[in-house]
Design a protein that fits this description.
homodimer; mainly beta; 3-stranded antiparallel β-sheet; 15 strands
Chain lengths: ~190, ~190
């Protein structure tokens, strides 16, 4: 039997950069079509400042099979589309009955979780905040600060990703700026 | 269906303390009988300085079932038994075909991995070193520094722990101090 070799990589705790990694996924404003409540504001922002980076994901080279623990780091840039903070697309696991572990590394933000029935829970994340996303909860991270918000994620290799459900329905709530505060409000586009 | 609630805990990145956690396991010199190559030195150390702490494990309250990702932090104290550095007992997973993710948080040490056939691989760990222990590798962490060595571990809920194999056979190699260096040498007691 051939066994996979153990390996070490460098996670820069101050920036969230993972090196080496298999690939870096860049999500720009144009990749986030339909993800924010105010699509017109997204288009205007893109016209004004170009197709800026919203977040980058540093994906470790780990098989996506049941025996393994794939992991990645994510760095969300500070910014807003209208009054809604920059965030990840968010996803359920394709196999709903699979958990995920998040560890905040730099910056400040939130983790928004949601069941298939639209129940939501929100958690503040700072460096050292460990969020446990149990089976059955969709999850999205949001940068509420003025610096890049970085964190580590670890998930079971057989979890898979279901982005489609969130792309279609959205989250029931969105996180918006009200003065200097981040406030969770109903998503007018939630289906 | 009742789903488990998401939760946030505080991981002190400078100390490795996880709060809240389900329990703190303390491994003292008396718990480490037979784990170091020089058992006489262990007994002498215990007689001299009492039943000191070797390491503590902060275990998160997560079910040990396939859907979940149990995790813990470990803090290994600096010290030696004879010339062998303080370390964890080390284990295989009961289900051999299961991985584990380690992230160094504070201090300095090493990760020693080993197959069932006695092949070993050693990795330096510093804050930000992420070690991927693939399926089939036993793993032990070792404090080679003068400060507590702290790290986070995440494992699949259905992995289980096999401590017995290492308790019986040991690792093929041990990490010992030679002057100011940590050197990997054959374990005279490896069976």
């Amino acid at each position: 039997m051939t066994v996979m070799e153990p390996s070490a990589s460098r996670l820069e705790l101050q920036t969230g950069i993972l090196d080496p990694c298999a690939r870096v996924l860049s999500r720009r404003l144009s990749d986030m079509q339909g993800m924010f409540a105010d699509e017109k504001a997204r288009l205007e922002l893109q016209a004004r400042q170009g197709d800026s980076l919203v977040y980058a994901v540093y994906v470790a080279e780990i098989p996506e099979t049941a025996s393994h623990l794939p992991h990645s780091t994510t760095v969300i840039q500070p910014g807003r589309v209208g009054d809604e903070f920059f965030m990840t697309k968010g996803h359920f696991h394709a196999v709903r009955d699979r958990a995920e572990v998040y560890l905040g590394l730099a910056g400040q933000g939130c983790m928004l979780t949601q069941t298939d029935e639209g129940e939501t829970r929100l958690f503040d994340m700072r460096p050292g905040t460990l969020v446990y996303v149990p089976p059955f909860w969709a999850h999205r991270t949001i940068n509420t600060g003025s610096e890049p918000f970085a964190f580590l994620c670890v998930w079971p290799g057989d979890a898979g990703h279901d982005y489609g459900t969130i792309e279609t329905r959205g989250f029931a709530k969105i996180l918006v700026a009200r003065g200097s505060k981040a406030v969770l409000v109903d998503n007018p586009r939630y289906g």
